[in-house]
Amino acid sequence: MKGGRLDLRKLSLAVALALVPALAQASFTLRSEVDARKIGVEDQLQLTITVEGSGAPDEIELPALTNLEVVGGPYQSTQVSIVNGRMSQSRTYTYALQPRAAGKAEVGVVRAGDQAAPAIAIEVVAGSVRPRQPQRQDPFGMDPFGDPFEEMLGRRRGRAAAQPKLLVEAIPSRTRLRVGEPLVLTYALLTQTSVADLQFKDPPQFAGFWVEDLERPQGSPSGEAATVEGESYRRFPILRKLLFATRAGTLTLPATTFRVGLARQGFFDAGGVVERATRPVTVTVEPLPEAAGFSGAVGRFRTSASLDRDVVPLGEAATLRFRVEGTGNLKWIERGPEVTITGARVFPPQAKSDLRPTGEGISGSRTWEFVVVPETSGAVEVPPLSFSYFDTSAGRIVTAETPPLALRVEGGTVAAGLPVPVPKAGALRSGGALPLRADLDRHPVSSLALPGRTVAALAGLALLVHAGLWGAGRWRVGARRRSSASPRSVRAALRDLERAGREAASKEQAASLVEKALHEAFGDVPDEDESERARAVRALLDDARFVRYAPQLGEYTDKVKDLAARAAAVVRRWA
Amino acid sequence: MRVARLVLVAAALAAPLFAGPSDDRFREANELARAGDYPKAIALYGELAASGEESASLYWNWAQAATARGAQGEALWALLRARELDPGDRAVVRDVERLRESLNLDPAEIAPEPLAAAGRWARRFRADLLAVALLALSLCAHALVRVRPWARWAAGAAWATLGLGLLVAAVPVAASFARPTAVVVRRAAPLLDAASPTAETTGSLREGEVVPVLESSGAWLRVEDNAGARGWAHVDDARRLDAPPAPLRD
Description:
The complex is a heterodimer.
Chain A: H1 8-19, E1 28-34, E2 38-40, E3 45-53, E4 65-66, E5 68-83, E6 86-99, E7 103-107, E8 110-112, E9 115-117, E10 120-125, H2 148-153, E11 166-172, E12 176-178, E13 182-191, E14 195-200, E15 209-213, E16 224-228, E17 231-245, E18 249-253, E19 257-262, E20 272-277, E21 281-286, E22 294-307, E23 311-313, E24 318-328, E25 344-346, E26 350-358, E27 361-374, E28 378-382, E29 386-391, E30 396-401, E31 405-410, H3 452-482, H4 487-502, H5 507-522, H6 532-549, H7 557-574
Parallel strand pairs in A: 2-10, 12-21, 22-29, 23-31
Antiparallel strand pairs in A: 1-3, 3-6, 4-7, 5-6, 7-10, 8-9, 11-13, 13-17, 14-19, 15-17, 16-17, 18-21, 19-20, 22-24, 24-27, 25-27, 26-27, 28-31, 29-30
Chain B: H1 2-34, H2 38-50, H3 56-69, H4 72-85, H5 90-102, H6 114-124, H7 127-147, H8 152-175, E1 181-184, E2 189-192, E3 201-205, E4 210-217, E5 220-224, E6 230-234, E7 238-240
Antiparallel strand pairs in B: 1-4, 1-7, 2-3, 4-5, 5-6
Helix pairs in contact in B: 1-2, 2-3, 3-4, 4-5, 6-8, 7-8
């Protein structure tokens, strides 16, 4: 709708539906229409009987005609419409009627099944009141280059011959109001034909008004019937504007010109564009009375005030909300109430709005939020807050006032930045003197923070030291492993020990094998090595030497087997 | 930056020696502000800041005087500078929000560098010292593992403190990569296509908007506004947040 271009697709469909009557709610509907209520005795009248829906009789009887006679028709046409996925069918019977004499005429009640369309009264005057059809000049009564469907469908060829029946109008909801009061201006299209396009030729002018867009009226898709100067039209609201007069006096809304694109009516019809203008609208605007503290609000409003908490620690802030709710010109009102609280600093408010334009004005609420920082402990009172507005129903300025609010301020640790009350005026801020701090406090700990690069360097250094410690540990383990026997030596040592305990060798040979196996598995074991492993190996070597060099005083077989078994266990465990 | 930090450290160490005169000048500026002579008060605050006597309180008072003078952009800059110096000052944070709303700025328009917020968090909670302490602790635990291999708990402690220390250290390290920023202190400050007073104006900056500083050249800063437009702004129009202000000019 913005930019002067309307929702043409919908409008076109709606206008088309106006000519093809609306969908039936019952099984079928019946409608009888004429193209004029006032004609001359020399004019012809077009009677259209439309049946929509299913279940209607195949034939519709011609109604009783008073002072009229049929000179053409019936021309029958059938149309199928699909709207929102729903299919409907309609049949149209068109008759051409000619009045017999000046005076009253009537198309009688049309009946079909259980449906009936009311009778239509027609006024017939002398002569002709309708534009004449162009006379055909060909001797055969038919233009060889004419539209072959023209005669059959009863349509006129070309729009130059007869101007389409189209009107646009601007309708104000009132013509007398006060400054700040709303006025709804409705633009409507009245048509007898299908429209494909509708635009503002020039943007409408609203000098002296503040304008808000309203939602497009949700009327019938087929429009509503309207009669203008004896002609029947279908009326379609196009758009609505909400106007607020900003000054007193006689204000005129100038004519607004629309450019209307006509839909194609047949195969040989190229459509067309016509221009239509509304009539100027004159409105009388009365001034508002003047009063102290009156901010210019007009309408009907309610006010309320609240604190977000009842108790606040000293140094903390509370939020005071002042809310105005109602319908009127609240969008105009920017300035909140003056709030002065003894013992507290009040910061300039922040305004929040929840407003929407309606036919009665702008409805919703506007809330001013004040941050209140108490400067003393104890009870702090928020005084009554007032809001003056012009009450349209009472016709006078009304002042609404909120009840006082109590805020309890608890003492305690004073937060950083607690304002220092200075009883001196001059500051521009709301709430009085500047909340300056008395001490320089020049050494915040955080200002001596280590730079990021230093922290990164320290972290890297820590990682390096960790890596060094880890590497040293690995080196020690590696050295220990290097001092141990290889797996092959261990296997050879175990084989030797097995042989020493199994074969029937002398005790010297067996002990020698044990010694050899231990040396293969553990190498040289230094005397200073006091580990459990070293002690175990040394003990085995001592036992082997004892068996080897001891005099042969008895049987050593068991002793040798035991030595070999213990040596094998040590080798398995430590090597 | 390094010079500023050195100045800060030097000022902190030498503070007891010079506390008297600075405090007197600070009080003098406060009196001027209370008397309504905001330009002189701001000039005195500026001199103190330029001489290294920076503190959150100094910038708080500067912001109050600027607000009273009607210079909301300058007030927002002073408050943000105060927040840089003392991120834990709740009153400063509250006033920053109030001014932001008063200037109709989106929260993102005064915080174009998320890493800068991480830096403030690190300064507020001393993440640098915490990280160093944790890393030192991890080294001690690791060394203990090497000396006493049977002390198994020390190995776990070493790993845990090392991981935690690196994690905490990541915050100030990441914050050090934040681009420097500046605050537009003049209404509709021009954005120029070159660092010259005769350059063509390519756009204008919103008062109070915080813009990243891409580079600097003399008295000019190359900045990028929230819409992505890049250009040069004079230091009188866009004041840096990462350094004390230059001495004010008349």
